[in-house]
Amino acid sequence: METRTGFPFRGKLLDELISFLAHNGLKYDTRAAYSICLVEDDRIAATGSLDGNVLKCIAVSKDFQEGGLAARIVSGLIDEAARNGVFHLFLFTKPENDTLFGSLGFYIISKTADVLLMENKKSGIADFVESLQISAGNSSLMTPNGETGAIVMNCNPFTNGHQYLIETAAKQCAVLHIFVVSENKSAFPAGVRYDLVKAGTSHIPNALIHPAGPYLVSAATFPDYFFKETVSPQTINTTLDLTVFAEHFAKHLGITRRFVGIEPFDEVTAKYNRQMKELLPHYGIEVIEIDRLEQGGKAVSASRVRELLAEGKMDEIRTMVPEATFDFLMNRGLKE
Fold this sequence. Notes:
The chain is an alpha/beta fold and 336 residues long. It has helices spanning 11-23, 69-83, 98-102, 124-136, 139-142, 160-170, 190-200, 239-253, 267-279, 302-311, 314-318, 323-335, and strands spanning 2-6, 34-40, 43-51, 54-60, 90-93, 107-111, 116-119, 148-153, 175-180, 207-211, 257-261, 286-290, 294-295, 298-299. Strand 13 (294-295) and strand 14 form a beta hairpin. Helix 4 (124-136) crosses helix 8. It starts with a strand and ends with a helix. The model has no long low-confidence stretch (mean pLDDT 91).
């Protein structure tokens, strides 16, 4: 059996791959950077793709189910990830494949009716959530006398709007967990965004700032978030990300409220909020929407700050962001 690889595939073989996946009830992900196919007599027998740290689009022909081809595909994808220095891996598959991929060294994180998310660390997400509890360092906040809230935010960059959302939410609970998206797929690096949130919330005593890691609004749990311009809001499904939040973060941190800002512009985020209100109450989590902070009759947004930054209008930006964010943007501009 011949092994063919693509970075990614193009032309005829890509067309055949798309057709093969469709025949097996899967859709090819155009964001895949690497694909592998096992070919017998010019027919695809098995395939799989790699997108960063996520294994996806894995399928084996019904004619070759007993040939151990899934193991060969997974092994090839793991090897390619290792060549790129990536060792903590996630895997998308159908829920009925849990036993198969469990035998190949992957462990269940969460599943929905449509998709199963696994990782190659036995207690990866449990260890991550435990590390958040340890790093918080304030036992009184980790065992609060009252409601525990949460916000998951990207803050690209951190604005007065984000600060207002956090301040408003913090008044409605004993402790507020802020999870800052960790993926480096935004205009500002994850480390910068995290530091700006820390600086901009230092005056809020019951706010705990955490990295979201690879588990919340990440390439593994909600990849469409980072490609809003190219995806249709009608086709996205945020159920997996919300299930991971509810089953692991909320459960172990005692989160009973999740706060979001009302989203009048971004259709992807607006749908995320709607699905949040549908799903999270089933886990005993109240979803609370907070009005956006407005300035001059317009909502303060990170996208507007980025537009003004590109235009060099620092005086306008000064009124829309906390001091720490403005200082960073000024220094960044000087360096550039």
